[in-house]
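User: Could you go from structure to sequence for me? I need the amino acid at each position, not a summary. C-alpha cells:
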C-alpha cells in the first residue's frame, strides 16, 4: 500500500489474526469479478484469498465510513446468524444502525413501513443473503460495502471486502477490524494503544454455550450470597433478645392503658343521668 500513509499498513499481528480466523479460505467456486482477489487454488479445490488485498479493502471501507459526518447514517445489515452479533456490536461501538435478522422489504423504499430508514451508506455481511437490502439500496442510490467470498455476486456492490464470510470467526474478525479502523480514523482511538474490546465479543455463539454460561452463573450466585441457614452471631442474638423484651413491654403497656379506658366509660355513664 504505497499510495497510503504508512500508519494504514497492516501489522504482523493483523495478518496473523486474519490467518488464525481462516479469513483467507474462500469457496470452491469463483465469481468472475472476484478473480483479482484470489491468490491461488489449493489441490482440494479451495481458493485462497489474498489477505493483503483484504486489508487494503478494509482500510478503504473504513475511510469511506469515516467520511460520513453522522455515524447514525450508516446501516449495517446481516441476515445470516453468523454475522448478527458482529453487526450489533459494530453498531454499539461506532454509532451505526444495526439490522440483525431478516430484512423487511421496503425499509429503504417505502416510507409507510414501521422501520423505514434513509441511510447514506450500508454495510452487508453477505451479498447473497442480503440481496434484498442491496437491491433496494440501488433503487435509492445508496452506496454498498459488502464482505464478499470468492463466489459472492458483486452486482450493485461498490466496495467489496474479500473475506471468508461463511466462517463465524472470520466474519466477526472482519467487523472488529473495520470498527477499530473507523474509530482510529475518527480520532476516537489511538493507533499506539490497543483497543480494549476483545475480538471474541464479535464472534457468533451457539445457543447451547449461552445456556451453559447462564447455568454456571446461577449456580455461583448462592455461594457468593452466603447461606441463610447459618447461625446468627453475638450481635444479632442480642438484637433479637432486645426485640423480644420490647414485645413483652408492649403487652404490659396494652394492659395498663385498657384499665383507664374502662373506668372512663363507667364514670361517663354515672354522670349522664340516663337510666335504662
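Assistant: Here is the amino acid at each position, in order:
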Amino acid at each position: 500500500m504505497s499510495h497510503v500513509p504508512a500508519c494504514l499498513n497492516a501489522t504482523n499481528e493483523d495478518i496473523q489474526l486474519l490467518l488464525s480466523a481462516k479469513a483467507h479460505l474462500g469457496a470452491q467456486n469463483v465469481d468472475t469479478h472476484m478473480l483479482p482477489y484470489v491468490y491461488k487454488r489449493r489441490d482440494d479445490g479451495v481458493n485462497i484469498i489474498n489477505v493483503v488485498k483484504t486489508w487494503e479493502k478494509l482500510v478503504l471501507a473504513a475511510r469511506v465510513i469515516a467520511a460520513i459526518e453522522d455515524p447514525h447514517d450508516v446501516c449495517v445489515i446481516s441476515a445470516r446468524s453468523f454475522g448478527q452479533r458482529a453487526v450489533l456490536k459494530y453498531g454499539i461501538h461506532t454509532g451505526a444502525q444495526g439490522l440483525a435478522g431478516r430484512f423487511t422489504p421496503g425499509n429503504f423504499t417505502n416510507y409507510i413501513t414501521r422501520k423505514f430508514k434513509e441511510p447514506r451508506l450500508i454495510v452487508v455481511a453477505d451479498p447473497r443473503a442480503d440481496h434484498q437490502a442491496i437491491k433496494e439500496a440501488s433503487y435509492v442510490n445508496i452506496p454498498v460495502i459488502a464482505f464478499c467470498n470468492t463466489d459472492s455476486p458483486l452486482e450493485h456492490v461498490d466496495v467489496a471486502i474479500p473475506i471468508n464470510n461463511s466462517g463465524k470467526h472470520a466474519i466477526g474478525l472482519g467487523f472488529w477490524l473495520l470498527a477499530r479502523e473507523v474509530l482510529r480514523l475518527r480520532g476516537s482511538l489511538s493507533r499506539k494503544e490497543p483497543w480494549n474490546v476483545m475480538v471474541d465479543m464479535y464472534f457468533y455463539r451457539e445457543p447451547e454455550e449461552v445456556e451453559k454460561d447462564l447455568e454456571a452463573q446461577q449456580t455461583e450466585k448462592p455461594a457468593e450470597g452466603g447461606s441463610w441457614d447459618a447461625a446468627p452471631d453475638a450481635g444479632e442474638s442480642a438484637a433479637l433478645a432486645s426485640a423480644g423484651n420490647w414485645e413483652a413491654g408492649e403487652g404490659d403497656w396494652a394492659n395498663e392503658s385498657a384499665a383507664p379506658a374502662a373506668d372512663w366509660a363507667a364514670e361517663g355513664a354515672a354522670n349522664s343521668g340516663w337510666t335504662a
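One structural detail worth keeping in mind: DSSP finds seven helices and seven strands in the chain.
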